[in-house]
Specification:
Strand 1, helix 1 and strand 2 form a beta-alpha-beta unit. The longest helix has 22 residues. Helices cover about 40% and strands about 20% of the residues. The chain is α/β, with parallel strands linked by helices and about 325 residues long. It is globular. The strands form two sheets. The protein has a six-stranded mixed beta sheet. It has two domains: about 180 residues, Periplasmic binding protein-like II (D-Maltodextrin-Binding Protein, domain 2, 3-Layer(aba) Sandwich); about 130 residues, D-Maltodextrin-Binding Protein, domain 2. Helix 1 packs across helix 9 and helix 4 crosses helix 11. It starts with a strand and ends in a 14-residue tail after the last helix.
Length: about 325
């Protein structure tokens, strides 16, 4: 029996492992749940966990930089549409996505996966070049003065880190827009003229999915390379365990007669999603090859990787 210190976000995808409902053969998981930004920095800067949930954008950048601390498994613990995460100043002359060109846009880290996806769709769907924007990085609610991981971006990509918080920058008008999975207080509390770029983001996301057939990957499972090398069967054992945990989570959504989260019509919404989109939450490389290839294309255009990469390299 080996013990693995596992750092992750809480979700129904790991609930069965967290509660002990599901055991991993030959492995004791010491699970601790964290908030995303702190977790990712601990993984990238201190290698604090034997196994962890990691930003897919950061993992792509780490592999491209030759980092070999961790091996990724094709277990995608977080996936999300991101149209709802782009906030704008309503007085900044932004009336359509194309108006973001030449603006100042805030984000937590340039390698943040939500930002990678939004930069990609803005370029693909609206012709907004990454090089046309001044990117400003910083902490959302408290100052963050360093990147998760050092980056060597092309000269045409302009990124500056601010000692101010992104919320305060947006509230004051020092930035024109913000990419953030967490809604900034200046928006939620009505403290500034801030709105979402797309007034009905769910409709935009549904239309985008109907066209692209993609549920964006956000996070990936990584395991210390030394452990994989010392225990050759560990990769397969963990892959099976996390697939079983996902299956239990999906089964619960479909069959439990009480909601697992505080949403009154959770079962009905899950059934509607299944009827319209099918089984969109999948693990494994082949079922996700197209979405991973898209992420690598976006990362290449962003300058996060300096050459074209094969999907297999992300899991080698």
């Amino acid at each position: 029996m080996i013990t693995l210190n596992f750092g992750c976000l809480f979700s129904d995808r790991i609930e069965a492992l967290l509660t002990g409902r599901l055991k991993v053969e030959g492995v004791h998981l010491a699970i601790s749940c964290h908030e995303a930004q702190g977790l990712f920095r601990q993984v990238l800067q201190q290698q604090s966990f034997d196994m962890a949930e990691l930003s897919m954008g950061s993992h792509i950048a780490a592999v491209a930089a030759g980092r070999r601390d961790y091996v990724a498994l094709p277990v995608f613990l977080s996936r999300s549409f991101r149209h709802s995460n782009l906030y704008i100043r309503s007085d900044a002359g932004i009336n359509r996505p194309q108006d973001l060109a030449s603006k100042r846009i805030g984000l937590v880290d340039f390698q943040q996966t939500a930002a990678l996806w939004l930069r990609g769709l803005l370029a693909d769907d609206y012709g907004v070049a990454r090089e046309s924007i001044d990117w400003v990085t910083g902490g959302l609610l408290k100052p963050v003065l360093t990147d998760r991981m050092a980056m060597d971006l092309p000269e045409g990509i302009r990124v500056a880190r601010s000692p101010e918080t992104l919320d305060s920058l947006l509230a004051s008008g020092a930035i024109d827009a913000l990419i953030s999975p967490t809604a900034p207080p200046c928006f939620t509390q009505g403290l500034a003229p801030v709105t979402r770029l797309w007034p009905d983001p769910r409709a935009e996301e549904a239309a985008w999915y109907a066209r692209e057939q993609v549920l964006p990957i956000m996070h990936v499972l990584v395991v210390k390379r030394a452990l994989i090398e010392a225990h050759p069967d560990l990769r397969g054992t963990l892959q099976v365990a996390f697939e079983q945990a996902l299956a239990l989570a999906l089964d619960d959504l479909a069959q439990r007669d009480f909601p697992k989260v505080a949403i009154a019509w959770l079962q009905q919404q899950a059934a509607e999603q299944q009827a319209t989109m099918g089984q969109i939450w999948t693990y494994g490389l082949e079922p996700n090859r197209a979405v991973l290839e898209r992420m690598l294309r976006y990362a290449r255009a962003d300058g996060l990787i300096a050459r074209d990469m094969a999907v297999e390299e992300l899991f080698a």
